[in-house]
Amino acid sequence: MKNKNTVLILGITSIIILISVQVFIVMGVWKQKNELFAIRYTIRSQEALYNIWKDMSTDGFDTVRILLDQKSGEYIKELATLKDEKELENLKQEILSYFTKVVNQEQDLSGLLSSYFESRGLDKNFKYKIVINNVELIAADTLIVYQRKGFTNNRSLDRSTREAPKEVSSSSILVRPGTHLEGNNYRLNFDYYIDFSDKKKLVLKETSASLGMSSMSILLVGIMFMITYRNLREERRLSNLKTDFINNMTHELKTPLSTITVAGKTLEMPQIRSDDVKILETAKLIGKQSVHLNQLINMILEISMWERTQFQLDKKTVKIEEIMNDVVDSFRSGGGNHATISQKYDFKVAEIDLDIVYFTTLVNNLLSNAVKYSDKDPVIDIEGFSIEDNVCIRFADNGIGINKTDQKHIFDKFYRASTGNIHKFKGLGLGLYYVKKIVEAHGGNVTVSSKTGKGSTFTVILPYHS
């Protein structure tokens, strides 16, 4: 158990480490692809600006220049009529609002860029963002209407040194940093950003190969771990079964051997040798235990033979109800004389092809288990009926029942249900294994339904003819 837990802990730890490494790699690939996306569209944007100017002699802000210059002249005249600082501040807010509105609504650059990207087979769907850096009115004295905090009016600054404002998303691409528009009555400086709405989808598409390989490797490692762990558990289970079988077989063999040994020493006693009745009783006891010992040895040898070769059935056409009555009557007169057994049969076809010897072993094993695994007076109900082309025989008892875990393995070789003391109920764990092998050799099936403390029901299904 300790080794199994150690393997489980090491396996889970290894998988966690693998997942962490794969996540780190995928995040690195994602970051790299994200940066390459930004670089690609930054370069393409600059190409677009150059070609738009070269082919169309415009930067996309011609209409903006005209409207701002006209309106700025009106604002300069209005400045002369102002009486206090409050009116000046209100006018500045109005001027900034107008400039922001015009530069956003009347610019043509976004449409020109979109058309250029489409012509180059690139994604044309993007959102633009214009951030006003500085607004000035040019009169006798220059009036600074607005200046963004942290903005320095140094047009020689490289785009990489320009700090993006908070209102711009981290995925935005700076296309025109420090764009300067100037007329007779104003100066305007702004940054022009573009942001692709499908950027994450495009980057994800590019990283899908790496993501798929990482997911596949994690899945494969997980599957291999589960298979290894399952095999380890199965190996552990089989090892326990083997140990239990050896211990139980030793116990079973010791009983007749001990009895024979004691009986042999008894015959050496002078007072016994002179008593013919005692000699006969002791001889019968030795004979009985020898038969029992021989049965145990033959059972083990038969299992070995069944593992190497298939069943050699000697089938005969028999009347199923008569066979059942004979086997049950024989069981009553033997070890099941204190069990209450009821029978109810309704077979549509009277005859069936069976190996009588193996079928008798099958029924006896089920009846013996019903008696053996009972903590009160055994009651066994046997019901027989037909389902399509099959005979169905149901054995229901009032025994101790079988828990869900044991039900999965009770037909395995050497398996014995967990009942506390392994020697409380005698046996080698071969009875139900015999049953399953015999049923399958006849082309049928056997199932069990049970609840702990509520008894068990075994259902045997056999074809009429096979």
Task: Explain this structure.
With 466 residues, the chain is α+β, with helices and mostly antiparallel strands. It folds into 2 domains: 2-205, no CATH class; 316-463, 2-Layer Sandwich (Heat Shock Protein 90). It is built from 11 helices and 11 strands. The strands form 3 sheets. Strands 6-8-9-11-10 form a 5-stranded mixed β-sheet, covered by helices on one side. It has a 4-stranded antiparallel β-sheet with strand order 2-1-4-3. Strands 5-7 form a two-stranded antiparallel ribbon. Helix 1 (2-56) runs antiparallel to helix 5 (199-268), helix 2 (62-79) runs antiparallel to helix 3 and helix 5 packs antiparallel against helix 7 (276-308). The two termini are 46 Å apart. Mean pLDDT is 79; it is low at 155-161 and 420-425.
In short:
55% of the residues lie in helices and 18% in strands. By secondary structure, the chain is α+β, with helices and mostly antiparallel strands.
How would you summarize the topology of this molecule?
Elements: H1 2-56, H2 62-79, H3 85-105, H4 109-119, E1 126-137, E2 143-147, E3 173-182, E4 186-196, H5 199-268, H6 270-273, H7 276-308, E5 316-319, H8 320-333, E6 340-346, E7 351-354, H9 356-372, E8 379-387, E9 390-397, H10 404-407, H11 431-441, E10 445-450, E11 456-463
Helix pairs in contact: 1-4, 1-5, 2-3, 5-7, 8-9, 9-11
